[in-house]
Amino acid sequence: MKKNMGGADRTIRILIAAIMVALYYFEVINGTLAIVLLVLAGIFVLTSFVSFCPLYTIFGISTCKVKKN
After folding, report:
1. 67: buried, middle or exposed (CB in 10 Å: 19+, 13-18, 0-12)?
2. What's the rounded Cα separation, in Å, for the pair 53 and 42?
3. pLDDT in tens, 7-56
4. Quick count: other Cβ atoms within 10 Å of Cβ 11?
5. pLDDT at 58
6. pLDDT of 10
7. Which end of the chain is more exposed for a tag (fewer CB within 10 A), N or C?
8. Are the beta carbons of 64 and 3 closer than 8 angstroms?
9. What is the full DSSP assignment across 6-42?
10. Distance CA 55, CA 50 (A)
11. Of 53, 35, 34, which is closest to residue 44 (Cα–Cα)?
């Protein structure tokens, strides 16, 4: 897997995941919506740690900085 996520993108995903978890913890969301958002939060955290998003590959997007030699 080639990295395709930059630092800002990773940080934003982790913050969004934290917000989703906080909404569940404080019982702002519940039921099916809560389950869907928690799964999405888990995916956000996982893709942030590995710096790879499969959807970015499909759409040809890369937020990772390109090093020039």
Report:
1. exposed
2. 13
3. 999 999 999 999 999 999 999 999 999 999 999 999 999 999 999 999 99
4. 11
5. 93
6. 95
7. C
8. yes
9. -HHHHHHHHHHHHHHHHHHHTTSS-HHHHHHHHHHHH
10. 14
11. 53
